[in-house]
Every structure is written in C-alpha cells, then in structure tokens.
Amino acid sequence: MMPFRKPLLRAFKSLLACSMYLVPSQKSVLVQGPGSVKKLPGLIREQGIRKPLIITDSILMKLKLLNGLFAEFDAIGMSHAVYYGVQPNPTVDNIEEAYALYVKNGCDAVVGFGGGSPMDCAKVVAARAAKPGLTADRMGGYFKILLSFHKKVPRIFAVPTTAGTGAETTSAAVVTDPRKHFKYTVNDFLIHPHFIVLDPELTIGLPPFVTAITALDALAHSIEGYLGGAHCRFSDAYSEEAVKIIFENIDRVYRNGRDIDARSRMLLASYYAGIVLNRALTGYVHPFAHKIGGMYDLPHGRVIGAVMPLVFEYYGATVHRRLARLADVIAVSKPGMDNSQKAAAFIEAIRGLNRRYGIGETIPEIKEADFPGIARSVHLECVPYPIPRIMNDDDIIMILKRLKG
Ligand SMILES: [Fe+2]
Fold first, then answer.
1. For the domain with range 24-203, which CATH number is right: 2.40.110.10, 3.40.50.1970, 3.40.50.11690, 3.40.50.80?
2. Which of 1, 23, 29, 193 has the greatest CB tally within 10 Å of its CB?
3. Residue 142 has what DSSP assignment?
4. pTM for this model (two decimals)
C-alpha cells in the first residue's frame, strides 16, 4: 500500500466513526415475549393505519407460521393484503410486485415477516411508497430517500422469525438485480423499522443447524462492530451483552428448539447485534461471506462461522485487547493470561461452536481459480468499513487457502 494512503484511511475511518454518532438512537417500539405477534394487528390499528401489506415468503406461508397473525386480524375485523413471493436477497422484481400490490390495495403500512429477506423487502417497498418515482433498481447507495426531501415513509413493522440477521433493527436492505447480476444495498435512516416484534414462538420450529448458523451470524455482527474503528460506548454495551447471551444460550436452543426462554434470549441477542451492525458496521468477515456464499450458494451463517476465526487471527495484536475483554465476558480467560492468550481463548471458543454444531472450519467448495475474483470483491466491499487491519491480495489469498483446507 502507498504510504500516504494510511493517514488518509485513518482520517476517513475517524470521520466515519464520528458520523456514526449522528445515527439516530433506536427509536423503534419493541414488543416482545411469547405470543407477542398476536398484539400486532391491534398495534397497527392504534397507529391509525387502515390496511397494511404483509410481506413474507412462500415457505413461511406453507408452514402456516402466519396463521395466528391472520386470525388476529380477522378477530379485530381489520383488512390486510399479503405478498408472499419474496426470494432470498429480494430481487428488484419482488419489490416492484409487492409495491404494485401495495398501491392496488390502497395499503398504508408494511409488515416484514420472516428472515432478513422479507424484512428487507418491506423496508424497500416503504421507500418505494415514499418516493414513487424512484424504482428499486435505482435505490442502491446512501440516503437517496432522505436526500429526496420526501420523508413520508409509511410505518414499517418488522417481525423476525430467525435469531440472526438483525434486519429488524438496521437502516439497510440488501437487494438483488438478477438482470445486471448485481447485489446492492439500500441505506437510509428512513427505512429503519418503526415497530419490532420479537416473538420467540415463531422461532421454535427452526432446525438445529439453521438455529446454530443464524446464531453465528448474530455473533459476527456483535464482534465485527466491536473490533472496528466505528465502535463506541453505546455499541460496545450491546456487543458484550449479545456475545454473552449467545454463548450462554446457543447450546440450549440447539439441543432443545422448544426451550422458549433460550429462544427469547437468542432473539434479543440478535436484535442487540443488529443495533451494533447498524451503528458500528462490519469488518472483513462479512465481505468474505457475501462473496463466497453468493458464488457457491452456501448459507450465510455457515461461511461466517468458518471465516470468523481466520479473520480475527489475521487482525493480530490490533484487536488483542478487545478480544481479551470478550474472553472475560464469556469467562474463557484464566488468571495469569495476557491479552494475546485471552484473545486466542476467545477465538478457540468460536472454533468450539463450529465443531459442536457441524459447521466446520473449512469450505472445500471454494475453487482456487476463483481466488482473484473473491479478493477483488472483498477489497471493493470493504472500502467504507472501519476495519482494524487492512489486507492486501496476499493476505486474502492466504485466508482463502486456509479456508479451502
Ligand atoms: Fe450477517
């Protein structure tokens, strides 16, 4: 790297870190507890809303996970429309179809019900309603809705059905444009959900492996922001609490999916980790996971789990003090250990999760011929992130070789 780029990069990161303080603090209304999703129709009506559009996917419809919610709408005599065509990383067509349904039915609010994709789709449909001239394929980037001075965004309600993405509390949405083979992010404070429902009963049907990999995703959200240059006292408190809750409860939910108390705790941890992600951004783990997961069609959390230890080891001494603190938080540090030993103990604890839940430490699906393309993508995605130690091509290739196994 050219020597003059380092001070410039540091200045940029400081600027970014300061800008994070401008992010509005969490103003969402949080509704939580077993069965809390049944309170949603009444809550929506209290806001003076006439007809919400519920956005979800076909799997959740088939599983009848929304039946309790629909019954409650019927019970209070409130009409609603449903769009259940959301695909993973919602496509621009998903958004346009949902928005067309929103207009056709005269809706005035959106409910994102599901994993990250339905919630992201709901956020962008709300943005679409606020700015009807701006189609989904032109919404990528920062603050396009805010800067349009058209701030009347419909109320957004988010109901997560996995404990991992944190999408219920972020101001961003990932969208895919299959025609351009392009995945982009819509970023705007105005698409931050206004109401969040954390109902652990919606997560009890998740299989153990999905439970584990979504938890590892939440774990990465809480740690990546903690290690980066944009962390602050506010985000640190959420990071430490999320890490503690995940390590205390992941085994319980993995072994007994019906443990409603542990499911509640994991949903809360995922929500806290989402706050960290929104405030302190991410590091290298996610760019690796986005590219590798997309290229080989692998679950996000599986790649995240395998990549985390390698990236945290690469950061080396720059993050030892921070990781040592997390080792204390989950009580894997021992008297007499210095920070580097505590950091190693924390990374080993993550490896332990990977081993216990069948995630493994390697991703043999990665092809060596793809290394340069993955490296390019990682460099590109990392540009705005406040990462603790910058990688060059050789560093990325070294990590990919270890990852391939
Ligand atoms: Fe993630």
1. 3.40.50.1970
2. 193
3. E
4. 0.92
